C-alpha cells in the first residue's frame, strides 16, 4: 500500500509540476512582452473555439463506436450530477457566507482536461495503471479509453462553463435584469466606444465597449443568426432571455463532441477517419492527423494564458494595486475541490462498482469516474473570463486560484491519489 501510494503521489506531483512549469512559461512570455493582454484573449478564444473542438472530434470519434456508446452514459449522468451539486454549493457559499461571485465558478467547474490528461500520461510512465488493465486489454487502449472518458466528461463541463459560468461570475449583472441605464448604454454606445478608445492605454485588457453592452450584443448577434432579428424582436423579453440561455449551450466544444460522436457511431466515417490508409482510412493521414495536431495545442496554450494573467496580477501586486488572494474564499474553494469531492466521489463510485451493476467491469472507468469531480479548478475559467469580458480583477483572482489549486492538488488530495489501488482492490474483490 505504501509503495502504491508513493507511486500515485509521484505521478500526480509530476503532472502538477508539468502544469505549473507551463504556467511559468506564460509568466515569462508576458514579463518579456512576447505576449500581451490582447494576445491572451485571442489565444483563449482560439483554444475554446478551434483547438478543443478538434481534440474532441479525434478523441471522442476514435473511441466511440456503435457497440461502445452505452459505456459513456454513466459518465454523462455523473458529470451533470456533480456539476449541478457543485454549482449549488458555490451559490450557497456566495449567498450565506458573503463570498465574492467568482467563488461559484471556481467551486463548480474543475479541471477535466489538462491536468487529468497529463496525470494519465504520468501514471502510465510509473507503471501504476498496469494493475487496472484487464486480460486481453493493452496499456495503449486503456490510456486512450481513459482520455476519452475525461473528454466526454469535459463536454458537460464546457457546456456548463460557457453557458452558466458568465452568469455566475457576473452576479451583479445577472441575466433578466434591465434598467433605464442599460437602455441609455445601448443608445449611446458609439459615444462610449469613442471615449474608452481614447483611454485604451490605461490597461492591457481595457474593453472598447461597456461590459454589459458587449455581452448582450454578443448574445443578440447569436440569436439573429439563428432566428433573424425581426423574428427575435417579436418575442417577449422573457422568451428572448430563455432562448439566449438555451443557445449559450450550443458552443464550439459541444459541436466538436457531436461531430466526433457522429463520426464514431457511423461505421463508414469511423473507418475513413481512423483506420490505416491501407484499410479504408483515406482521411486519416491528412485530415485526422491535422485535427490531432491542433487539438494537442489546447492543453498547453490554455495553461500559458493562465500564466500571462498571473503575470499581470504579479505586476499589480508589486505596485501595491493588488493585495493578493482573499484567504477564506480561497480556502473554501480548495476544501471543496481537493478534499470534499474526493471523499464523495470515491465513496459513490465504490458503492456503484461493488454493490450494483450500474458500471461496466472496467477498472479504468472506475478510476476516471473517481477523479472526474476532484482536482483543481478548471483552467478554462480564464478562457471564459477572457472571452466574456470579465473584470480585470476577477481574471487576476481566477488566475491566482488556478495556480494555487494546481500547486496544492497532489498534496491536499491524498484520498484521490489512492484511487488506482482502490480500483484494483475492487476488481480483485
From TrEMBL:
Q: Does the keyword Transcription regulation apply?
A: no
Q: Name one GO biological process term.
A: transmembrane transport
Mostly located where? membrane
Domain of life according to the entry: Eukaryota
> Positions of the region Disordered?
173-196
Q: What membrane topology is annotated for this entry? A: Multi-pass membrane protein
Tell me where the transmembrane regions lie.
72-94, 242-265, 326-352
- Under which name does UniProt file this protein? Auxin efflux carrier
Keyword Membrane on entry: yes
| Pfam families on file | Mem_trans (PF03547)
Q: Which Gene Ontology cellular-component terms appear in the entry?
A: endoplasmic reticulum; membrane
Q: Which UniProt keywords apply?
A: Membrane, Transmembrane, Transmembrane helix
